[in-house]
Amino acid sequence: MTDYECRAPGATPTVPIRAQPGGFAIFKNSPCVWPESMAGQPDSPLRVHVVDSDAHVRGVISQELMGDSRTVVAGQAGSLRDGRRLVRDLGFDVLLVDVALSDGAGFDLMAHAKSLNPKAEVIALSKHETDDDAMRAFELGAAGFVVKNSWFVSFVQAVLQVANGGAAITPALSRRLLLKRGASAATHSVPGPSGEVVRIKLSLREHEVLRMIASGLTSSQIGDKLAISSTTVNSHVKNMYHKLHVRSRAQAVSCANTWGLL
């Protein structure tokens, strides 16, 4: 492949089965119940770039995304070089990129894409559940890490999750990261950036929210489970960012796992 593609293979998008009173619609694809307040609507779908050196994988992912009216493939690329041109020339909301491209590391494209479009979300793709690769992707600002051959992967759901403030992590990897350190106390002493000891203290509610974020839930879903508003959830998230010195949910999960906060 010598250039990026500006359209995806043809697919007939699914439309809502029916609108429901209360401001939400029912879709055939998961997540089936979809509020009108969420990003990704049939009249304003999320624009997705797919970058993977395997043309077959690109086609499978693109077909799934184009089969749902909440997402649209804005462009495809098969190399780091073409991926750089793609994110530069065509607007996007979410970037799906393989960590191992034919002419370089997908991590380089993640960093480049975030520098050009800080508000866009990035989901790293991989053939393997590698903790180190996942951590590196999170450190670069990725909001998801998806193993391409996982039985549980849904690219539509992953895109919708990250675009609405959640994290998309392959279940087995998420479980491993959560259990890696085991249960720990709410207050921790951790090494700071200059070697000094830093005290981290999260409230019980902040711990609950952090664990749900690590499980891939959005603010709205967390609010439903905890019987609080999404505004309150976002307030807890903001407090965690300040305490953990991070700027994204994926970074918070990565940081908390490294320091034994999960």
From TrEMBL:
GO molecular function annotations of the record: DNA binding
BP term (GO), one: phosphorelay signal transduction system
Short name of one Pfam family: Response_reg
Residue numbers bearing the 4-aspartylphosphate modification: D98
Domain HTH luxR-type: 196-260
Assigned keywords, A-Z: DNA-binding, Phosphoprotein, Transcription, Transcription regulation
Record InterPro entries: CheY-like_superfamily, Sig_transdc_resp-reg_C-effctor, Sig_transdc_resp-reg_receiver, Tscrpt_reg_LuxR_C
CDD domains the UniProt entry points to: LuxR_C_like, REC
Keyword Ligase recorded: no
Keyword Hydrolase: no
Chain ranges of the Response regulatory domain: 47-163
Name of the protein: Response regulator transcription factor
Annotated source species: Ramlibacter henchirensis
